[in-house]
Structure formats: C-alpha cells, structure tokens
Amino acid sequence: MKVFSSLCSTWAFGIALLGSILLKQVCAETRCPISNIEYSVFSADADTEIFLTSCKEGADGPKTTPINETSYDWWYFDVVSPDAKNGIVVVFMVSSPEAFAPTSFADNTAAYIFLTVNGTTTVDLLPALGASVVTNGNGASGNWTITGIDFIGNEDATEYTITIDNKLVALNGIVTFKSVAPGHYPCNALVGGVSESVAAHIGWVNVIPDANSTVELTQNGTDIAFTGYGYHDKNWSDMPFVSAVSSWYWGHGRLGPYSLVYFDTLGTDGKEYLSGYLALDGKIVSSKCSGVKVRPIGSPYPPTVTDDPPEGLTLLYEFETGKYVNVTITPESVSYNGVGSQRWLATMKGTVDDSAEILTGSLYLEMLVTAI
Q: What 3-state class would DSSP assign to 181?
C-alpha cells in the first residue's frame, strides 16, 4: 500500500537539494493520481495507491489504483423530489466483494440503479465487463461496459448527465444535474493541497452538493418524469469498509434556500469523524470537519446491526460560533433496506442560525452499520 496523503512531506528532506522549484514539480507529478483509467473485472495482485490530498484538478477522477482485494472506488449520483416520494440513485462501482460487500458480484465492476416512484423502489444490479473513467479538469466521465449506463461531466464539474439504455431491465432515459452549490472536500472548498479524508483510510469529494435535476425515464414502457434536488460525490479506500467503519450517517438535501450535506461516522478505531457543509445562493457558508452531531430517534447510539432502524434522525450542526443548523429528519420512502444498510428518501424541518422561521425540505440519507 502506498498512501499519498501529504504534500510530499516524506520526500521533502531527501530531495531538498534539488531546489524548491524542482521539489514542487516532483511533488506535483508524484502525488496526483492518473487522470484516465481502464478498470478490470478482476482484482489486481498488487499494492494499491490511495490519494488523500487534493490536487489543483482531477477532483472527480480515480483516486485508488489498481483495485485489489481490499480497495474500492465509486461514483455516486442521486435525485430526490421535494416531497421525498420520487427519487433515483445510480452508483458506478469498482470494488472487490471483500472490500465493499454490497457489490454482490464476484466481478469488480458493477452499476446500481435504485428507482423510487410514488414511494415504491425497484433495484437493478448490473454487472459490467470492466469500466473506464476519463478526467477533464475537475469533472469526469465514465462508462461501465455492457450495462448501457454512463455519465458525462463538464470540466468544472458543475453539470453532469447520466444516460441509461438497458434492455435487460427495460429502462432507458437521462438524468441531468446543474449545480447550484460549489463543490467541496470534507473540511474545505474544492481547492488543491487539502485533505480528502472523511474517515480513516476513506477519501471523499463532493463535486455537486446540490443541483437542479431532471429525471426523464421509461421503465417497462411507462414514462417516469420528475424534478428534484440532485447530488454527486465519490468515495474511495484501500481498506475494506467493515475494517474502517463502525457506523456511518450521511445525508444531503435542500432545507428552504440552503444546500446541506453532513457526515457523522464512527470508525472502528473509536474516533468520531465529522463533516458539515452549508451553502446559500451559490456560495459556501460553511465547510468543516467539526460541529456535526447526528443521532437516531427511537434506537440506540452507537448502533449495531441487530438494532431496529431509527424512526428518524436529529441533526445539529454548528456552522459558525453560536450559529446552528437544527433539524429533525423523517424517513418517507425506502430506497434500500439490508442488514446494517439503509437508505431513505426523507423530509426535514428545522431552523438555521437564530431565526425562528421553520424551514422544510427533502433529502437522501444513509445509515451503514457494521458493529455487532
């Protein structure tokens, strides 16, 4: 395993005599991942390289290579309607079954579609014969071979289109994303030279925290169309998910005029990893790795895989000293329900800052638990 998680600090002393200009050049060349990659269906018999410090570009590009039995890299997209009754999740996955168990395939490449219409969800798991990703600026485009599903992003990662044409599951159409909030890393805006770690051994970048999105699909001859709040991020790691995470609360949505994203993760090392993001009118209000507290309603914390799912969640986010996001989240529709793994479309209501105005909105939220 090779971890590129600092600005070449481990090499700085040894090559200092090369001069500051050459040092910067060497660091820039060695710490940034390759921009274009072809993924095999088989796990590599080699150490993986994981990149956990951002570069000036390539935010949405591959960050773990090659994919071996303990590593994964995925691109996640979703859209939730304002009433949380309609939504879609599309995941482009590269992972061994040992690294991230929900792949459910012996092969390393697969695409997933979770389509919720009027509160009812259908799930399509589509194995791919390999995959390819091409980076363009901070954006990326990917194709998962034979699935009939691909995504195309623009250079500044503000617009994406997913195209679906799969005759096996009788689903075709497009999903579009036009960003309304700037991208970010766990603790910072989308800039070079900052940490991409959202938990131990896990990288995360959220190039589209919130978007105006359209879904136009045909499923088994029935037209499905809705608009909503879109989102796109990616995660990657050189360690199996169950080895790093005990519990994982994540969510995003639109609360009144605000774009909101949160993480509250309990690692197997006993440490709580936090990330909060708030944007308004196309500008970041807060992006930091502190001040977030997510707790279940009607079930214990920390959770275990044997606990019943929560009735809802509370979120408290101190985005500035003395200023809070304080919301209650209520699941409305189930996107996925498995052992230790739940995803919901939900509504939320609460306040921002010290305003008495009650804001409402909708979101996708996810709860992953590995602790027994």
A: coil
Phi, psi of 31 (to 5 degrees): -95, -15
Q: What is the largest CA-CA distance in the chain?
A: 67
CA-CA-CA-CA dihedral for 331, 335, 340, 346, to nearest 10? -20
- HSE-up (13 A, CA, CB side) for residue 183: 26
Nearest to 150 by CA among 133, 129, 138, 167: 133
Give per-residue pLDDT as tens, 170-186. Answer: 999 999 999 999 999 99
Neighbours of 32 (CB within 10 A): 18
pLDDT of 14 higher than 80: no
CB 23 within 8 A of CB 15: yes
Helices (H), the chain: 9-12, 20-31, 241-244
Burial class for 173, CB neighbours closer than 10 Å (0-12, 13-18, 19+): middle
pTM score over 0.90: yes
DSSP, collapsed to helix, strand or coil, labels residue 143 as strand
pLDDT in tens, 329-354: 999 999 999 999 999 999 999 999 98
Beta bridge partners of 220: none
**Token representation of residue 8:** 């070449």
- What number of CA atoms fall less than 13 Å from residue 172's CA on the CB side? 8
Terminal CA-to-CA distance of the chain, rounded, Å?
A: 28
> Tens digits of per-residue pLDDT, 38-71?
999 999 999 999 999 999 999 999 999 999 999 9
